[in-house]
């Protein structure tokens, strides 16, 4: 297993390098002058040139790229053009908020989705099944920014049950985590339902029932455990997506995570911060995928990695 993990980490290096190249080139293709945006409309040309020189934008693109890759090889993401602080320091200050929000959302989505999927599978073609399927489709189709705004209007403004923005109290997690989990709940419920229906038709489940085992034991010990493998895949991939896809949710709720920092940095044309956040998102997604693959071996002992 250790050898497999090391091989996967080494294989991730070219992926991160490719992400770095794409992000670097796309940022340079954006219209406008980052130095002018940072300096402000009232700044003089001398001030703009000073900022352009400090950012290295007065150098050829090839030279800028070599400098960027060289720093990246030394794990140096550069300095923010706005705050002059190290990018790594700014990202690490915001990252815990994003990880906490994604963790709460994925736990909430997994709990609700798995339970709903099992209920739908055990009540196949009933009203309960149709209701769960409709609710899942509704959750998958709902735009997160619209749902977030509606939750703010209802529960923060009208009822005043939860804060509308910020992350300074435990109740601040409720609305953004529910918004972020809404899409994932539908996917997990649909996958759990289809996987459970397939497993419930297997011979070993019928054998367990014929032995007189309680239905809960048959469902949650024999059937659900064998149906979890595709569900684990969905949960792992969606957790990685939540880490990078919390941008809209963090913006709507004013959540101080790296998604909000990314939006602010894009508008401010802060190239080093945008590059650093994108590479952070990519690294987290790769690590989550690796963790899911390792978890397979514990969910299903028949799976082995390596020779």
Could you walk me through the main structural features you see in this protein, from its secondary elements to its overall organization?
With 307 residues, the chain is mainly α. It has a domain at 90-299: MetI-like (MetI-like fold). 77% of the residues lie in helices and 0% in strands. The protein has helices spanning 2-28, 34-39, 45-55, 61-73, 87-122, 127-141, 144-158, 174-200, 203-210, 215-245, 247-253, 258-267, 271-299. Helix 5 crosses helix 8, helix 7 (144-158) runs parallel beside helix 11 (247-253) and helix 10 (215-245) packs antiparallel against helix 13. The longest helix is centred in the middle third of the chain and has 36 residues, at 87-122. It is globular, with a radius of gyration of 24 Å. The model has no long low-confidence stretch (mean pLDDT 79).
Tell me briefly what this model is.
By secondary structure, the chain is mostly helical. It has helices at residues 2-28, 34-39, 45-55, 61-73, 87-122, 127-141, 144-158, 174-200, 203-210, 215-245, 247-253, 258-267, 271-299.
Helical residues, percent: over 70%
Low-confidence stretches: none
Ends distance: 10 Å
Say how many strands there are. Answer: 0
**How many strands, what sense, and barrel or not for the largest sheet?**
none
CATH class of the domain at 90-299: Mainly Alpha
Derived from helix and strand composition plus strand pairing, the structural class reads mainly alpha
What fraction of the residues are assigned to beta strands by DSSP?
A: under 5%
List the helices and strands in order: HHHHHHHHHHHHH
Number of helices: 13
């Amino acid at each position: 297993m250790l050898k497999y993990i090391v091989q996967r980490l080494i294989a991730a290096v070219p992926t991160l390098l490719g992400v770095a190249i794409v992000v670097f080139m796309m940022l340079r293709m954006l219209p406008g002058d980052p130095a002018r945006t940072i300096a402000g409309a009232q700044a003089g040309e001398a001030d703009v040139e000073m900022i352009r020189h400090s950012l290295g934008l007065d150098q050829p693109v090839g030279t800028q790229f070599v400098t960027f890759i060289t720093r990246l090889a030394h794990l140096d993401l550069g300095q923010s053009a706005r705050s002059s602080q190290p990018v790594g320091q700014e990202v690490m200050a915001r990252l815990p908020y994003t990880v906490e929000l994604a963790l709460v959302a994925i736990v909430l989505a997994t709990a609700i989705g798995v339970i709903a999927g099992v209920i739908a599978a055990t009540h196949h073609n009933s009203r309960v099944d149709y209701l769960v399927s409709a609710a899942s489709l509704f959750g998958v189709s709902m735009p997160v920014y619209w749902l977030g705004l509606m939750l703010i209007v209802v529960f923060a403004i009208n009822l005043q049950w939860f804060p509308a923005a910020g992350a300074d109290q435990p109740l601040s997690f409720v609305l953004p985590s529910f918004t972020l989990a809404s899409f994932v709940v539908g996917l997990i419920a649909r996958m759990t339902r289809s996987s459970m229906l397939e497993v419930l038709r297997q011979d070993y489940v019928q054998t367990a029932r014929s032995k007189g085992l309680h239905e809960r034991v048959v469902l949650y010990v024999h059937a659900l455990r064998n149906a979890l493998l595709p569900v684990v895949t969905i949960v792992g991939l969606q957790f990685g997506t939540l880490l990078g896809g919390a941008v809209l949710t963090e913006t709507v709720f004013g959540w101080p995570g790296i998604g909000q920092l990314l939006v602010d940095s894009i508008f401010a044309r802060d190239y080093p911060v945008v590059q650093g956040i994108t590479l952070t998102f990519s690294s987290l997604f790769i690590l989550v995928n690796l963790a899911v693959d390792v978890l397979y071996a514990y969910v299903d002992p028949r799976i082995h990695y390596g020779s």
